[in-house]
Design goal:
Distance between the termini: 16 Å
Helix content: over 70%
Radius of gyration: 22 Å
Number of helices: 16
Strand content: under 5%
């Protein structure tokens, strides 16, 4: 086992050798497996969307609101569990590897608390979809999908907590293997359960929900197996850190709670945006916006992977008490995400119509979807800015102010603004709400950058500097061979 903080760092080790190029290289080294994880996770939803879309326009219109509803219920817990990554990164940076495993266990207890929330959510569904008021056929499909998929909530929280641990201690390939396995399983299960293949009855859209739930269980099984294997028992004492700790759970609530509330209201706003503002322009517009969102996810989810790597590297640098290095790593993250999302924006401008045509042959859907992708192209670079800096702030444990900012901009500009332009400028049609979406993302990106540059995050201490560093595990290159993944 390699010792010393210098060896665990993916970036360069001392102030005299810090360089932007070196930090970009280190970020990409750590970030690529995490990007693979986020993109593969996105494929779980995209596979459902693609296969369900074969059932017709009504099914296409139904599945995205269901997904938004799931994450509205789920995101509070996900935000809390995600804070495990911040604590794990800072713990390893400060020479406290056992603390990383202890925080991972606390996320499991947080997930258990969400079992009754999942049950309560399923009880509310019939009245909720009736109140939303979609076409009766769409409502029936929404209910069939959502009453199964809501049971993913506790399982997903377990997974995110463990993935936060693995990413925080710079073992990202563990999470990558788990989600890739789940994607393959989900595709096969969707084929069997949606269309009645391989000896299974045809369940339609409900079959997609069952496949998704079981895929999450497969993912959790792999993560749990590796977490308790010999390497992690040795390096992090992962099996012995299981005891509930109110202090650590309190830390998860303090750091992860604001993020969870932000995510809940963020996804809730998209749910309102799609099911109320956009749906008011008709089923074709709703289907077109759903399709455009699938392509936006390709850009957004990859950037989230880089952002997650920024969280780890910033957190690790802060654990080492190297705040200037943390700032340099945030700058490296901005460069990488901006280049990627800028290229995607150009693709949206140049090839929007062919992209939408891949998922629909309806002329109205293609026309509307192409226009929506133009708006997406406009906000890509500002989205890159927001993603980078919110993750950098998260690595420092600065989550409360960013959460308040995003919530205010989200509901004040995106939703209220979208409603006002729809009501008082009806000639803009569906472009009105998407214009306000673009303005919201621009304002949020600029404000988060300002927050980071002002440096309030430098004063935050999640761990006191009174613990003597101990030998810590090998760096990101030393991946978990027990699951067949080489470095």
């Amino acid at each position: 086992m390699q010792s010393a903080i210098e060896n665990i760092s993916v970036g360069t080790a001392s102030a005299s050798t810090w360089s932007l190029r070196g930090e970009i290289r280190g970020l990409v080294t750590l970030g690529l497996p995490i990007v693979g994880t986020t993109m593969s996770g996105m494929l779980l939803g995209f596979t459902d969307f693609l296969m369900v879309s074969q059932l017709g326009t009504e099914a296409t219109a139904a599945i995205s609101p269901c997904t938004m509803l799931l994450y509205t219920f789920l995101c509070l817990g996900l935000g809390m569990a995600n804070s495990v990554q911040t604590y794990s990164a800072q713990a390893v940076g400060g020479g406290r590897p056992k603390e990383a495993a202890a925080y991972a266990w606390q996320a499991l207890y947080v997930g258990l608390a969400f079992v009754p929330i999942a049950w309560f959510g399923t009880m509310m569904l019939p009245a909720l979809w009736l109140r939303v008021g979609h076409d009766p056929v769409v409502q029936e499909m929404e209910l069939a999908y959502s009453e199964v998929v809501l049971w993913c909530i506790p399982v997903a929280i377990f997974c995110v907590g463990l993935e936060g641990f693995f990413n925080g201690v710079q073992r990202p390939k563990v999470a990558l293997v788990s989600v890739m396995t789940a994607v393959v399983f989900n595709a096969i299960a969707n084929y069997a359960l949606i269309f009645g293949k391989l000896g299974f009855p045809a369940m339609g859209i409900r079959g997609a929900a069952v496949a998704t739930l079981v895929s999450w269980v497969v993912r959790l099984t792999i993560l749990g197996f590796v977490f308790r294997n010999r390497e992690f028992r040795r390096d992090f004492d992962s099996e012995s850190q299981w005891r509930p700790s109110f202090n650590r759970i309190g830390g998860i609530l303090r750091v992860g709670g604001p993020t969870g509330i932000q995510w809940t209201l963020d996804v809730g706003s998209w749910f309102v945006f799609l099911t109320v503002l956009i749906a008011g322009f008709g089923t074709a517009t709703l289907a077109a916006s759903n399709i455009a969102l699938q392509f936006m996810h390709v850009s957004f989810m990859a950037a989230l992977g880089i952002g997650s790597a920024v969280t780890t590297l910033v957190g690790h640098a802060i654990g080492e008490r190297k705040h200037d290095l943390a700032a340099l790593r945030a700058r490296a993250g901005l460069i990488v995400t901006s280049v990627y999302m800028g290229v995607i924006g150009l693709v949206f401008l140049a090839a929007g119509r062919p992209l939408v045509d891949l998922l629909s042959n309806d002329a109205d859907v293609i026309s509307v979807g192409t226009g929506v992708l133009v708006w997406a192209a406009v906000f890509q670079l500002f989205d890159a800015m927001g993603i980078t800096y919110v993750h950098a702030l998260r690595g420092a444990g600065d989550t409360r102010w960013p959460a308040i900012l995003v919530i205010v901009c989200n509901w004040g500009v995106f939703i209220v603004g979208g409603y006002l332009v729809s009501r008082y400028l009806p000639r803009l049609g569906h472009h009105g709400p998407w214009m306000m979406c673009t303005l919201y993302i621009i304002l949020t990106g600029l404000a988060l950058r300002g927050r980071f540059l002002r440096g309030a995050w430098r004063k935050i201490e999640l761990f006191k500097a009174d613990v003597k560093p101990v030998e810590i595990p090998a760096p990101v290159e030393a991946q978990v061979e027990q699951i067949g993944v080489g470095a």
